Amino acid sequence: MIDAHFVLEPEKLIAGAPTALSSMVSLETSVVNVLTKMDQLSRENRKEVETGHAGVRSLLVDGVNDGPWNEKHAALTRAIATVLDDYSMFRMVALDNIDEESIENLLLMIDTTIQ
């Protein structure tokens, strides 16, 4: 589970994605990454998360702010984002506990992953 707030800040997402991948490798099974606390986001942020969480590359590469640290590590960020996107290793499913369709989508994703 990853808080939806992590997706809004690329610096946190770049830390959360490898952590999720590490747990998947340690458990030796497929993992469903759930974006929680969607109900706590504003409408603008919710739309941003819902439209952007399909592609990790766009979230990481386009969202990182300019600065000395980010300029130095821009190539590393792009490389990590490319690997995550190209091999479909990291996908997120948004969960809004108020929206029944969101819950059904999550259950379908879990069912598909288990089989």
From TrEMBL:
Entries under Gene3D superfamilies matching the protein: P-loop containing nucleotide triphosphate hydrolases
A Pfam family matched in the record: ATP_bind_1
Keyword list, A-Z: GTP-binding, Hydrolase, Nucleotide-binding
Record carries keyword GTP-binding: yes
Coiled-coil region(s): none
GTP-binding listed as a keyword: yes
GO molecular function, one term: GTPase activity
Family from the record: Belongs to the GPN-loop GTPase family.
SUBUNIT field: Binds to RNA polymerase II (RNAPII).
The protein's role, per its UniProt record: Small GTPase required for proper nuclear import of RNA polymerase II and III (RNAPII and RNAPIII). May act at an RNAP assembly step prior to nuclear import.
Protein name: GPN-loop GTPase 3
Annotated source species: Pristionchus fissidentatus
